[in-house]
UniProtKB/TrEMBL annotation:
NCBIfam families: PhzF_family (TIGR00654). PANTHER family: PHENAZINE BIOSYNTHESIS PROTEIN, PHENAZINE BIOSYNTHESIS-LIKE DOMAIN-CONTAINING PROTEIN. This is Phenazine biosynthesis-like domain-containing protein. It comes from Lepeophtheirus salmonis (Salmon louse). The active site is at E47. GO terms for cellular component: cytoplasm.
Length: 242
């Protein structure tokens, strides 16, 4: 029977059971994607990262890795907090002192390094947003109504084709940052919306008027089928447009 080294890491926090949790599986050799999916489904965290050495099969000395991310139901093209969690395992548990490079399934590279102050920094890919295609206007409006019934508070609709994320930019003069963090979507209504799998996530965001606090505040619906709101998501963060 195969055995795997598995970690659960809470990203963006220094306290247990806070932040954004992800599982990290260190692979000595690659396994079938179907096996990865079964592991992620059993772990049941929002994302499970699978990390494989690229050149030297040594998690202490290697600096280049392959990485894949799976939710309990499917593979995703990008997950920032699970990548940071993977780097944390390599830096803090394996004592890897290198600048790390993670190659994604799409061939992109994410570069991560441990700063002198102990924090981990990572570059993010840029996923530009554009105006809605005509075929997405109706489903986008229906989704927006399920999240925020008063459409007068929506300043603009944007869409990121690369990540299939719908972005709802709200009017900061009509809604507060705290209001965004308290949003409770009508998940039953969202499940009724048909977008032909073109919309896989919804970003609700606006600029923060008190610049001393934040540049922007946002919440994220992971997928219309998962019924979960997530306060931190890198694929949504890389799709911001202000």
């Amino acid at each position: 029977m195969s055995t795997f080294e598995v970690y659960t890491v809470d990203a963006f926090t220094d306290k247990p059971f806070y932040g954004n949790p992800a599982a990290v599986v260190l692979l000595k050799s690659d396994i079938e994607d179907s096996f990865k999916q079964k592991i992620a489904s059993e772990i049941k965290l929002s994302e499970t990262a699978f990390v494989l050495c690229k050149n030297v099969n040594d998690f202490v000395s290697e600096n280049e890795f392959y990485i894949r991310w799976f939710t309990p139901s499917n593979e995703v093209p990008l997950c920032g907090h699970a990548t940071l969690a993977s780097a944390a395992v390599l830096f803090y548990r394996k004592k890897n002192k290198n600048k790390l490079s993670f190659e994604t399934m799409g061939g992109d590279e994410l570069h991560v390094e441990l700063e002198n102050d102990g924090y981990i920094s990572m570059n993010f890919p840029h996923n530009p947003t554009d105006n809605l295609d005509k075929s997405l206007v109706d489903p986008a409006i229906e989704i927006a109504k399920a999240i925020l019934p008063d459409l007068n508070k929506v300043l603009e609709f944007k869409f990121s084709p690369g990540t299939k994320k719908l972005l709802l930019r709200l009017d900061e003069t009509k809604i507060t940052s705290d209001d965004i963090l308290r949003i409770e979507p009508n998940c039953e209504e969202m499940l009724k919306v048909k977008s032909n799998d073109c919309i896989r996530g919804v970003i609700v965001t606006h600029k923060d008027l008190i610049k001393e606090r934040y540049d922007f505040v946002s919440s994220y619906l992971i997928q219309p089928t998962t019924l979960e709101f997530n306060l931190v998501s890198t694929s949504r963060g890389s799709s911001k447009s202000f």
